[in-house]
Amino acid sequence: LEERIIKLEMNGPKTFPCVKLLGYEDKKRILVSGGAGFVGSHLVDKLMMDGHSVTVVDNFFTGRKINVEHWIGHQNFEMINHDIINPLFVEVDQIYHLASPASPQHYMLNPIKTIKTNTLGTMNMLGLAKRVIARLLVASTSEIYGDPEIHPQSEYYWGHVNPIGPRGCYDEGKRAAEALCYAYARKENVDIRVARIFNTYGPRMHINDGRVVSNFIIQALENVPITIYGSGKQTRAFQYVSDLVEGLVALMNGNYSQPINLGNPDEYTIEEFATLIKDFVGSSSPIVFKEGLEDDPQKRKPDITRANNYLNWSPKVTIQEGLRKTVDYFRKEVEMSKN
Ligand code: NAD
Ligand code: UDP
Ligand code: UDP
Question: Where is the signal peptide (predicted)?
């Protein structure tokens, strides 16, 4: 896709990637809340390339117009600047509800707003889905498992979240979002899908995102200290964004309505991950240890048996391949931010 996107020339006509032509029966009107964000914009690319009509609704809190710039002006594409904590009236067939800050630094910035986005915002999306009889997929998270007592985490696990800690606004917001989905499914027959997304990385992550992948890569590129919070023995498992997008689309269009984990089970300690990034970039950065974060989950790795069985899905992109694309992206971003 990257090669096919021809950038808008200063004075020339705008050209677009070649999208599939769908018949009336197959072409869907799809709303993507949070579509200008990291994951949302990659999902928009896939849906547009597949020939659907896509409407993005975003308030640009953490998203950026540049992420979907290449579609602006296309007849199948529309963008609405709107905060989903307020009602939204559009006519669509499917809703991918992704609007919510995702990085701890972003969601802790205004915890009240994070709760509102995930509760009131989700309720508005469900009210919309109910009125227009659309299927709704909510982007939930592995954070609903909190600091897990079982490992790896399967969808049967109810979680171990501190409701009053600094991560509570996001974790409990997402748990409420899931509860709202099943309440609307039971009471109002809304057709729902719930994706529990595990740590995801790739191009278009925000340069100031503060998450481990972006921090470590930028630190390595700049040959400044790579900062590990806590002992570095805590683990995460990282999936590349294109794998997630494939999983989201499969979940939306499948028949399974219980929650499904989408993640890559390839698990690293944060210390191992720091060394991996340092070596990958060929950096001279020292690796330093800082104070640990409050309520930082100590282990995380998805059990993806359910996604395998019900969606025939598993991640395909290796960490080397994913990091190559991501490091290339951040190299350009760092260069641009200097200019
Ligand atoms: P992101 O911050 O890049 O994107 C979120 C988008 O939502 C942004 O464009 C932002 O402007 C928009 N938004 C936030 N609040 C809004 C509001 N009130 N009204 C309208 N738009 C609003 O984050 P992301 O990494 O792309 O995450 C997308 C979704 O996936 C989120 O719901 C997140 O919780 C979930 N998720 C992501 C990860 C991950 O590792 N990236 C992991 C688990 C879950
Ligand atoms: N809603 C929306 N768009 C719609 C339909 C509803 O944003 O097309 C909002 C509506 O304003 C309400 C929420 O979704 O705040 C929940 O809707 P529901 O119909 O469940 O609740 P009610 O309107 O009966 O309180
Ligand atoms: N982390 C770190 N250094 C950083 C950023 C994050 O050691 O510069 C750690 C963090 O403490 C956590 C893990 O990396 O244990 C993943 O953090 P991230 O914010 O990426 O996502 P989370 O999975 O915690 O939401």
Answer: none
**Cis previous bond, 111, omega within 30:** no
96 given a catalytic annotation = no
Per residue in 128-161, pLDDT (tens digit) is: 999 999 999 999 999 999 999 999 999 999 999 9
Ligand 2 atom nearest residue 124's Cα: 14
User: How far is ligand 1, taken at its centre, from the CA of residue 158, in Å?
Assistant: 23
Task: Report ipTM (2 d.p.).
Answer: 0.98
Find the 89 Cα to ligand 2 centroid distance in Å: 9
Q: How far is the CA of 172 from the centre of ligand 3 (A)?
A: 19
| Closest listed ligand to the CA of 144 | 1
Distance CA 241, CA 33 (A): 17
Q: What is the pLDDT of residue 14?
A: 83
Whole-model pTM above 0.95? yes
Q: Which of 66, 317, 50 is nearest to 200 (CA)?
A: 317
**Ligand 2 atom 3: the closest Cα is on which residue?**
128
